[in-house]
Amino acid sequence: MTRIAVVDNSKLKDMDKKKHIQSLCPVNRSGSECIKLGDSKLSIDESLCIGCGICVNAAPDSIKIINLPESLTKDPIHRYGENQFSLYNLPTPIFGKVTGILGVNGIGKTTAINILAGVLNPNLGDWEKEADHKQLIEFFKGTEAQLFFEKVEKGDIKVSYKPQNVDMIPKTSKGKVRTLLEKVDEKKELEKISKELEIEKILDNDIKNISGGELQRVAIAATILKKANVYIFDEPTSYLDIKQRIKVSKFIRNMVNNETAVLVVEHDLIILDYMTDLVYIMYGKESGFGVVSQPKSTKTAINVYLSGYLKEENVRFRDHEIKFEVRPPTSLKKQHLLTTWHDIKKKLGNFNLEADKGELHKNEVIGVLGENGIGKTSFVKILAGVLKQDKGKIETKIVVSYKPQYLETSNELVMNILKEAVKNYETQIIRPLNIKPLLLKKITQLSGGELQRVSIALCLSKEADLYLIDEPSAYLDAEQRLIVSKIIRGFIEEKNKTALIVDHDLLFMDYLSEKLIVFDGESAVNGVVNNPLDMEKGMNKFLNTLQITFRRDEESKRPRANKLDSQMDKKQKSENKLYYT
Length: 581
Ligand code: SF4
What we know:
581 residues, Alpha-Beta Plaits, 9-stranded mixed sheet
């Protein structure tokens, strides 16, 4: 097959419109039935379609005609139905290794994981019949996947799986964290694992009262406590701060041995790099088809991913390369003062926040780094005037546009909320954030990633001096994170404004920020806000608290975390240059 058709009949309700689309098809006009209308459903015969695109122009929201890469010679491993999403190939867990999966959202990562976890039975492209084990083994003959499915057939594989969406856990599981974890503790290691993942203090809390970061670690603990030999973690670091991300990465790395394999989907590229030995790249067309590449060493895979071109397969999956630049020091830029603060103090229950003095300038993007519970969001709210400080002063009244960390949903249409953005920022915001397909949806109907994009667009489209953007990378895939960085930087430069970005993805922050505000203190006890520093000093200060070092990859120039106690790690620590320059 050279092309596939994807039809969303839920968006094609009008029968007259369907008949009209059918009447336009040149293949139908010449007497063959390429577009069929049966049971009021429109379907396309892919073997007859000539790919002219006329039907797509007539119903762009409902029909996709996609040319498949020439290198794709095999049938899909799974297809959801006629004119529905197809997945080609599978990533295979390898014993003794942590294997990563990297790809944009909607490309079939969860489908692949569900097949490996035994939650979804694949059909080898024939959506009317599930494949049996024999067919699967035959399909994967001569590959790692063949060995995997042979073990599955013999009952030698037991999978434990942490799903992506931990927010759903309190909706399906009720009660104390301890009781819930005891139920799955087949290894009888609850005390040990809780200590390692630092959740001992919340074991007696109700699951509905714990934070996103705690929920994530409880979900990881529940996965690890089950006796299994293949562990799958779908986005194990969302909601975690960088300290916790590194801790969880080390923990997951240490799980593998000759009898255990780990598979991880992760969008934080620094963490993916730190945690995995091998990576499968997934590419294709969102909601159309997904292809799993051959596995590559992690370093190569991330560089290939950034380059947008798979050499062996001869597939270009992005029309541009993502490049990291060595930026000129900000001191060379002309700095116009925006605002200053001094002697800010705020007490929130038992937590104390202090900000001695600091200043913000026009035309700069400042990253805000610090662990969870150290007052980043509270400081941002004080600057935004959402929260009033007990003492101290903020000079120069400024107008602030604020995107909160936790996004509120409502029944409003996206179109109504983003009226200004659509009117004024079509090229700077709406198009690059791919908001158009979302305009007719209600906010409640959006996925986490879609809601994040809408919230960023809304924040940037408001008239303000300072844009405070709290955790914009949450729910976005690696590619969307880099697109968002570009949009924010471009917008701030063009409008001569200022942005403060709070986030835990260090590659995203490196790509986006010119300066850093680093928080000191102790989680839930006190937080101290330091004056903005240039990237080198700020990162050096921050990495010192984590005791990790970063180098720059020679090829892509992206930041990479050095392995602990490696030659580079020791050298950079001895020179007190923890951040590459
Ligand atoms: Fe017909 Fe295919 Fe052209 Fe659509 S793309 S009008 S189905 S030939």
